[in-house]
Amino acid sequence: MKKLGHKTIIIGIGNNGRQDDGLGWSFLDLINEDELPFDLEYRYQLQIEDAELISKYDNVIFVDACKTEIEEGYDLYPCLPADNYSFSTHALSPETILYITNELYNINPNAQILAIHGINYELEIGLSSIASKNLKRAYKYFKDKIASKYFVLTKNY
Amino acid sequence: MSNRKLVIEPVTRVEGHGKVTIKLDENGKVEDAFLHIVEFRGFEKFIQGHPYWEAPVLVQRLCGICPVSHHLAAAKAIDQLVGIDPDSLSPIATKLRRLLHYGQIFQSHALHFFYLASPDLLFGVDAPAEKRNVVAVATENKELAKKGILMRKFGQEIIKALAGKKIHGILAVPGGVHKTFMPEERDYFLDGKEIPNIDTMIEWSKEIVDFMKSYHAENAKWIDSFARYPSNHLSLVHKETGALELYDGRLRSIDARGKELMNIADIEYSYHFKEAVEPWSYLKFPYMKEYGRENGWNRVGPLARINTCTHINTPLAEAERKIFKAYTKDFPNNMTMHTHWARLIEMLHCAELMKELLLDDDIMGNDLVRKGTTRNKGIGIIEAPRGTLIHEYHTDDKGLITKCNLIVSTTHNNEAMNRGVRSVAKEVLSEKPEITEPMLNQIEIAIRAYDPCLSCATHALGQMPLIVRLEDYQGNIIDEKVRS
């Protein structure tokens, strides 16, 4: 049963059966190995019930693979609520989930998106070498960041 | 106006990827309409050569919405390969599997009603496309949305408690289950401290059925007539009593007026069914051999189940079934949009069944696995949320799968969905000077009533932009719209 242990939840989005699409999950695996004090959730895609889940937290970080090339190989940026939902599917973006959390529960958690660049998305298990390198960089950056007293998500997590 | 062809691709707010082609003649009259299932199918083939015990784990990967159904249908078949028929499974294992199954149907029905169907019902078929989605439902009907979220969550938590995770977890093993329920797990669903408890689920399920009845009363003309056509109805029923049965029973089919067409042991299905193919779809068309391709097809799913059963063995759902049946004077209900109503009665039934099992101390017992004499053939049939689901496996003497046949609910409903598309196309599109987006949405609504899982039916992955294509009779594109 889910016990809400921490004030920050990190949601890894993706599918490790699709090569670099598994970056979000791999990131959570690293946190698990290091036993960092966050609640973790693995998702193939975000759905509306995740709005209820994140309403229980002060902070949320969405970690996902991205196809756009990034100089550092990763990017951590604020996630702001937006009702930019897709017409045709019930899979929702982090911004939309945040918007629904705000609408339904009148709560607006501090949210960020960690995008990690991947290049291969075919039906195969295993990250590409570029994605693996970007994952290591992103994770090092994240660990350095949470150790910093200036990092907003480190407050009381 | 020249002959032309309208294409809706893909159909939206269904699971998977399909497209609809509507052929108009030179006067703009609908000549014909087809639902094409264009995903590729491969599971039956690539499971060959794998050990039989992998089937319940592998085959559930067909789907992210109803993996539990595939897991359990495969498990029932694999039980037979280790010599265990459904009646020989330990009562504890049976109860745990049933609890998992009811949790799955409960969450799947909640997903369909709140996320996929309710935008059409709440905002109307001609509401702007950008409004017909779950986010608009959530923002404009907050209390309904909150309940929908928590009802789906309850079912998913049941699945997680039993199978380890919400999607693609594992409970069943050959001849039983690998885990029992712990007292603290049971308390989680009963005490209401962390999530609303099972009594609240029953109460909310009843509220949603009441909502549907009110909605029907206000919109009876449309709901009763939309995509209405006669059909046979097929489902499992209880072996002795004929009651609604979701996990294990006999296969019963009735015609549109209630005459019984078939009542057989489930494992005899292959002697009674054939599958036809059409060049324009990867999805097959199952039918009862005895009645032929034209007359032997069935609807499956909630509407069919409420039609074929003699009663429901939980009190609140049975009371609702009686009201539902009274509307058609006890004759089978052939009104496609009443599938939503039937689905909600089943949701209430599953909530009642979950309560019965959660209060049963057997679910914390330890007689979990049994073994018998191995065989080379196993057939597992259950009622998945969308209808009758059939798994059949053959193995060699080393236990490697040599043959697999899957007939999923959406495949049974293939002919029914095509009839629905044709019926609505002729009703709303014929001889209209302009084809509007709400008209196209009505075609999709006829399909959506079946809650089809096209990924299950053909087993594919893919992205789903929507392409609406207008072609002349030679296939030349004269108009195209894309939405994503």
Topology:
The complex is a heterodimer of chains A (157) and B (484).
Chain A lengths: L7 E6 L9 H12 L4 E5 L5 H6 L4 E8 L7 E5 L15 H12 L4 E8 L11 H19 L10
Parallel strand pairs in A: 1-2, 1-3, 3-5
Antiparallel strand pairs in A: 4-5
Helix pairs in contact in A: 1-4
Chain B lengths: L3 E6 L8 E7 L5 E8 L5 H4 L8 H4 L8 H15 L9 H33 L10 H7 L1 H22 L8 E2 L2 E2 L5 H8 L7 H21 L1 H6 L6 E6 L12 E5 L5 E6 L3 H4 E4 L8 E4 L3 H4 L2 E2 L2 H7 L6 H13 L10 H21 L18 E8 L2 E9 L5 E7 L1 H4 L1 H15 L8 H12 L5 H5 L7 E7 L4 E7 L1
Parallel strand pairs in B: 6-11
Antiparallel strand pairs in B: 1-2, 1-15, 2-3, 4-5, 6-7, 7-8, 9-10, 12-13, 13-14, 15-16
Helix pairs in contact in B: 4-6, 4-14, 5-6, 8-14, 12-14, 13-14, 16-17
Distinct helical segment count of chain A: 4
pLDDT < 50 stretches of chain B:
455-468
Radius of gyration of chain B equals: 22 Å
Instruction: Quickly name the level 1 CATH class of chain A.
Output: Alpha Beta
Low confidence ranges of chain A: none
| Strand order in the largest sheet of chain B | 3-2-1-15-16
**Secondary-structure-derived class of chain A:** alpha/beta
General description of the model:
The complex is a heterodimer of chains A (157) and B (484). Chain A has 157 residues and is of the alpha/beta class. Chain A has one domain (8-126): Rossmann fold (3-Layer(aba) Sandwich). Chain A has helices spanning 23-34, 49-54, 94-105, 129-147; strands at 8-13, 39-43, 59-66, 74-78, 110-117. In chain A, α1 (23-34) links the parallel β1 (8-13) and β2. Chain B is an alpha+beta fold. Among the domains of chain B are: 4-41 and 417-483, no CATH class; 90-228 and 343-364, Cytochrome-c3 Hydrogenase, chain B (Orthogonal Bundle), CATH 1.10.645.10. In chain B, 42% of the residues lie in helices and 19% in strands. The radius of gyration of chain B is 22 Å and the shape is globular. Chain B starts with a strand and ends with a strand. Mean pLDDT of chain B is 87; it is low at 455-468. The chains are: A alpha/beta (157), B alpha+beta (484). The A-B interface holds A 1-2, 44, 47-49, 51-52, 83, 85-90, 92, 96, 99-100, 103-104, 123 and B 10, 12-13, 64, 111, 115-116, 129-130, 132-135, 138-139, 142, 145-146, 149-150, 152-153, 156-157, 161, 167, 184-185, 188, 194, 461, 464-466, 483-484. Chain B: Its cofactor is Ni(2+). Chain B: Keywords: Metal-binding, Nickel, Oxidoreductase. Chain B: This is Ni/Fe hydrogenase subunit alpha.
